[in-house]
Every structure is written in C-alpha cells, then in structure tokens.
Design a protein that fits this description.
By secondary structure, chain A is of the alpha+beta class. Helix content of chain A is 40%, strand content 23%. Chain A has a single domain (2-79), classed as Glutaredoxin. Chain A has four helices and four strands, in the order E-H-H-E-H-E-E-H. In chain A, strands 2-1-3-4 form a four-stranded mixed beta sheet, with helices on both faces. In chain A, helix 2 packs parallel to helix 4. The radius of gyration of chain A is 12 Å and the shape is globular. A three-stranded antiparallel beta sheet of chain B has the order 1-3-2. Chain B contains six helices and three strands. Chain B is elongated, with a radius of gyration of 23 Å. The chains are: A alpha+beta, B mainly alpha.
C-alpha cells in the first residue's frame, strides 16, 4: 500500500505527528510504501491526487486526510482498507 | 491624519463603492466619522487596501485576504504560516488551470465536430453533444 504525505518545508503543521503516523502505518501494513513529498517539487502529481491544502495524506493516489489525521484515525482507515479486524 | 473615503479611493485607485464593500466584509474600518457623519480613515486603511489589491492579483479571495490581514497582526503567526497559505493557493490555482485545460480540450473536440457552419440548428453537433 502506498501512503504519501504532502508537505511544504518549514510548515509546523506538516511535521506535527508525522513520525507517529508513519510508525502506525508501518505497524499495520507489511508492504507499506511511505513517501513524504514536497508539493513544490511534485506540483503536477499533487494536483493529480487532489491535494488542495497542506498537509495532506494520500492513500493509493487519492487524498484521504487533510489536515493530518490522528494515529487512531489513520489506524481505522488502514484497518478498513486492509480488511483486518480492529 | 484622517482621510475621507474619496481621498482613500483616489490614493489606492479603487472606487468608493469598493471601499464600502470592503468595509462590509470587515477588511477595513473607518477610524471615525466627521461632524457631518462622513467616514474618516487613517493611513493604515490605504496600506490595507493596497494589500488587498496585491493579494487579489495572486488569486486570493476576500475571505482569504481577511485571514492574511489577521495573520499580519497576530503574535501567534509567523512567516512560515503565510508561506504555507501561499503554497496552498498555488496548488489550488494549478488545479483550476488543469480543470480549465480539460475544458478547453473538450471544446476543441466539439468545435472539430462542427465543420459545416451552414447546418440548421437542429443538426448542430455541439448542441447535440450537450443534450446527450
């Protein structure tokens, strides 16, 4: 599963809780691909996946969270997608 | 020093109606009123109107500009917060550009279907495409 966090450098909201979210995703998804993308470096792609505000998290190429979720919200979404029990 | 609405309008090159609209939207406010009841503004109003115009040129809406003006005077905000807002606006503009390019291409396809300008309206392929 591919999870992408779109951010802009210097944005505190973008860095807040990022490591904990990554740890949550790593724990739940064995084939996780976690990418952190500076929107200004990947502008066309950010538009393609529907990023409109920062920070945003896209799962499998579509924005799912904007702003960043709590670890619990991310966990719930990933469990739902992977078909695992809670 | 206080200025009348006409003077502010002339200094900032916007109409008095626009200034009244800005006032209704909470973007500027008069410093007081003259004895005759006319609005009087201070120099900061001129700066705010120029700020509004420049921000509009970058695509910001009046609501967004009000937030930027609030950030300008907020102790809690700093430059990186403003930068994030600017980056978000750029992404939103790019998304609009992408959508408009798609519209333009769709029109290209419709225009290409209508090679005979002399057809009656009943046979117009562009109108027909919209009625699908």
């Amino acid at each position: 599963m591919k999870i992408e966090l779109f951010y802009t450098p210097g944005c505190e909201k973008c860095a807040d809780n990022k490591d904990a979210l990554r740890a949550t995703a790593t724990e739940l998804i064995p084939d996780l691909v976690w990418r952190e993308l500076n929107v200004l470096d990947e502008l066309d792609y950010a538009v393609e996946v529907g990023v409109l505000t920062l920070p945003s998290i896209a799962i499998e190429g579509k924005v799912v969270f904007a702003p960043l979720p709590t670890c619990q919200q991310l966990r719930r979404e990933l469990v739902k997608r992977s078909g695992k029990g809670a | 020093m206080t200025l009348t609405i006409g003077k502010i309008a002339s200094l900032s090159k916007v109409s008095a109606d626009t200034l009244r609209y800005y006032e209704r939207e909470g973007l500027i406010s008069p410093a007081g009123k003259s004895e005759g009841g006319y609005r009087l503004y201070d120099r900061d109003a001129v700066r705010r109107v120029r700020f509004i115009k420049e921000a509009q040129h970058c695509g910001f809406t009046l609501t967004e500009i009000r937030n930027l003006l609030d950030m300008r005077t907020s102790d809690a905000a700093c430059c990186r917060d403003v930068r994030r807002v600017a980056v978000e606006k750029k992404i939103q503009l790019e998304a609009k550009i992408k959508a408009m390019r798609a519209m333009s291409k769709a029109l290209d396809r419709l225009i290409a279907t209508c090679s005979n300008e002399g057809r009656p309206l009943d046979d117009c392929p562009i109108l027909a495409a919209f009625e699908k």
